[in-house]
User: Fold this.
Amino acid sequence: MCKTASCGDGLVQENVEQCDDGANNGAGKACKADCSQNVCGDGDKGPGEACDDGNQSNDDACTNVCKLATCGDGFKQPGEGCDLGANNSNTGLCTLACNLPACGDTFVQPGEQCDDGNQSNTDTCLTTCKTATCGDNFVAQGTEQCDDGNQLNTDTCTNQCKTATCGDGFTQPPGEECDDANMVSTDACLGTCKAAKCGDAIVWAGMEACDDGNLSNADMCTTACKAPTCSDLLKDGSETDIDCGGATCAKCQQGKACLAASDCITGNCVTGICAAPQSCKQIRAGNPAAPSGKYTVDADGPGPLPPFDAYCDMTTNGGGWTVFYAATGADGQQPIVSNTEVLVNNPLLFQAYNAGIAKKLGLAAISTETMFVRSGGIWLRADKVAFDNTLQVPNTTSKKAVNLLANNGATAAGFMGFTTFNFAGGGDFGVSVAPDGPTCNGTTVTGFDHHSAAYRMLNCGCERHYLYSYSATVLDGDAGYDINTALGSWSATNVCSGEEGGGLAFYAAMR
Assistant:
């Protein structure tokens, strides 16, 4: 139009103007008033721009792409801790609210195990955003009883965060010696968490036979918690001494402790000590299996009579007979009342034998009956002892009523007596018939008529005698013994017809 080109004429002057919209040029327009294009960063908010602050900073309210700053635009603006744009994530390095990850923001971000958004250390998530665990030093309510922050099981809190108790399987000193996680009291660890031991009054199964809780061996459980035995080298159970005496063990030897005669093999308990047996009866009581033979006895115990060897008949009529005399039936042997000892022979074999008066009286003092034994097991028993103290007094006589029993069971009343008068021709000892009857010297009153000073313990010779001594030659010193009157199996041997007596072989014993 032949006019000078100018900005605003609607024509773009090449190399001078970037644009020219004529009347539409201006601020906020696509073409500004100076005919330059409105672009981001020119400080003029043009079409399509949310803002234009004329700078290239993305850290202010208007980004360098002329958009208003927002969380998620990829730029960290004031008020934002971060902005990774499309990479923002509540579980990443920048939250959707453009905040840096932080424990307590309720989001579980890298490095965190949990995040419950509170400041409590007693729930399942700690304030350090770590999952609550036993050993974190915080007690989780409902799941833990304690938490001491260590892995020790020997203190008051176990590594399972349980309060230490007996039975938890962990030994916590000083109150516990052991803990096997059970409450059984018969194993190595008691239900009180004390180590099982002998003396705790609880029987440790498989290890102890008993446990009575005391330190005595004088009962039915030893201090080693074993049942008493007769070979444990202890005085225990019912034993009266080490491994002997009492109800179950062998009888004690002489010198061992005892409570009763039955505790002693000697059959004699004196002031609590097994003493030498006083008689064969005591020996058999102490040992029923004791055989017949020679034994040492102490008839008066602690008395003046010393112990002496004696022969014992342990079988005849129940056994326990102490032999004090034996005759072979030959002439020239000692009479029953003699004090001259003959001890070298064996009376059980019907060899001549005689104990002294002191021994006879010692046995009589502790005996109650007398027996006369012949070969073949034939015997006669009187229910009284053969002697009393008259035996040691010269020129005296003793006699007593007795009840007699023969080995075949025959019984009879009788008299038994002895004398210390002159008896060299016989009549020193006899067993006669009762009741009394007429004799050549009147009627007897105690079984013997004493019709002759030389034959004092006889009735008119040898009448009615179960045992008598006689010699046809007065005072010849060799009177022997015979039987005039039988009693059952106790048969007569010589009727005293005037010939030399002494044909009976026998032994005499007391019990």
Notes: Helices lie at 280-286, 357-365.
